Fold Iron complex outermembrane recepter protein.
Amino acid sequence: MRSFKHKYPTLFASVALALSCSVTAQEQSKTTQEDIEIIEVSPRGLISYVSATASKTAVPIIKTPVSVSVLTAQRISDLGAETLQDAIGYVAGVYNGPYGVDTRGDWSKIRGVDPLLYVDGLQKLFGNYNNTRTNPYALESVEILKGPSSVLYGQGSTGGIVNAVSKLPNADTGGEIWAQVGNYERKQLAIDYNTTFGEQQEYQARAVAMYRDSGTQTDYVDDNTLMLAPSFTWLASDETKVTVLANLQRNESGSSTQFFPHEGTILPAKYGQIPSERFVSEPGWDKYDTDQQAITAIIEHSFDLDTHIKFSGRYSDSTAEYRTIYSWPPKFEADKRTVNRIASLTDSSARSLTMDLQFHKYLELDALKLTMVSGVDYQNADTDSDRGRGVAAPLDLYNPVYGLSTELPTAVVDNPENTLNNKQLGAYAQVTAEVNNWVLNAALRYDDVSNQLQTEGANKNSQTATTGRIGVLYQFENGLAPYASYSESFKAVFGQKAQGGAYKPLEGEQVELGLKYQPAGTEHLITASIFEIKDKNQVRKVSPEFEVQDGEIEVKGFELEAQLEWQYLDVYAAYSYSDTEQDITPLTSMELFAAQDLRTLITDDAPLSATPKHLASVWATYRADNLLPGLKFGAGVRHVGETYDGSRTIVLNGQTLHEQLVTDNFNLIDMMIGYDIDQYQFSLQIDNVSDKTVITSCLYRGDCFYGQRRTVSANVKYKF
């Protein structure tokens, strides 16, 4: 067996060089802790000027040559976000909830592609529908890194990552109790308390907890949760800090997503629009119940003012019991009101161990400042999914009668082919160099990814990849900072092609030009970017038994985001434009013969599904302290442009064989009114004030998704 060092020659050379420079020049470093400018958040805690997600070190956003957006806990609270999906609805380039209201998880499209979800810099989700939903009340902030990010985080999408940052202990003592009631019989109680103790206040502890009993806009579907997130920090010395965070969570819910047919949603139907609250499954049988026990350890040690290491590790064990009934294929029968249904049972689990060991070094050599990060990260995840299938009685979507399915499946079947072990081992090195007004960021990474069935004698599939990123930025004295960057991503694709040979990894690349602006003497932060993304080696099915790996996704776009803050008014505005296309190489005559069905080709050269060309939003909060101290008003407008079903219109000899479906654009209005007096905070928050029924997307396979209806919550918080 070759040694670890021999397997990663390029990365180890880079890391060794960085460490060598650190040792050689350590005596030349003249930086003290007081010399480093520490920028945190705006006075009201709404605008963060630092993001650790983009570079794995706390670098000001104005000096980061990539696109990153940060939502603080105060911003999430002002927006009244009840889920992580709600929280990111005002971020430029992000389409939250492309598949409508879904109690099973938080979905989004960033630059046209599904992002990966991280918590505290470590990947959270492994497998499908076997993890608990992240609770936004347990978060200090949410950081959205846009574009390919494999160079620091390993395999992933070209869309980027969403990194949820947990609430951790601090030096303060105090907390809050939060009570909430809302429509759909929502009742919620939460607490967040932090304290310090010890002879020298070297111990810090925090407890975040929530209980919720709630329905949803879908009949017979609950959204209940019980969450406890205790954490403890030990300041072992001036140089060493140890933090342990646990997350215990149980969610009890069901399937709010109903996969309604085109007819009756986006297309006219004989009996009119299908009600958005309609439930296609069976009451009392349908469920999506998840449990999670996770523990995270974060250890930080400083060797001197300019050198430190950080270790993050998490073990997570989650299970999901999933029972659902849905219409498939999603279309009406001859009576134009009844759908056939399939019953599905799934028991899933995911056990994962994730770790990241980082070495940080800061050097100052005359006019040159170097910030270096190198490290090794590791993922080991076992996922299992046992399933059962059956047939349920047909259902009338306009006058449903439940309880007619008397022989629903009761037990799952052990599926050894769905018991997988996934591993990823990566080594990375990054350097940020500042000289005069120039900032140069360069990074390189090597990954070894494997996938193996947990059955005796199963073969181990593995792929490797090297990815990089380079960016340059110039800071003008007036606060303007133009930049340019190039970044790469990869995602393993395992298996053998029917025509022979192994699949290649997906390979993504992005070129981005941008401008950041932080006007001197203000709290404002404005960012703009244009980008072009290509994701190569896409796999597409041209028949039930035949796949080809010839596709390329191309995304071109523009984004503008402005966070503005004055004495009484703050504004969060965003706009994005995305032009997407799935390009393919024309099939050979032999491949066309294997396809045998023109319908399999309708996704060729088509826009990506569930991705609006235009997204725009603005949220403004007026704090009327000049009129009545403690009074505040907030309102927002979200515009979502047309989305496409992932196909293109096909006309042959003057006859339309297939017509692309396009959803209508829509606008939604949100609002908030609040009043703070002494230790109490009162607020009323309403999403989708006009209770507009909207379709967030439709897919060419036949189904459409309804968006969030009017959601009202009344809140009281007591600070102590």
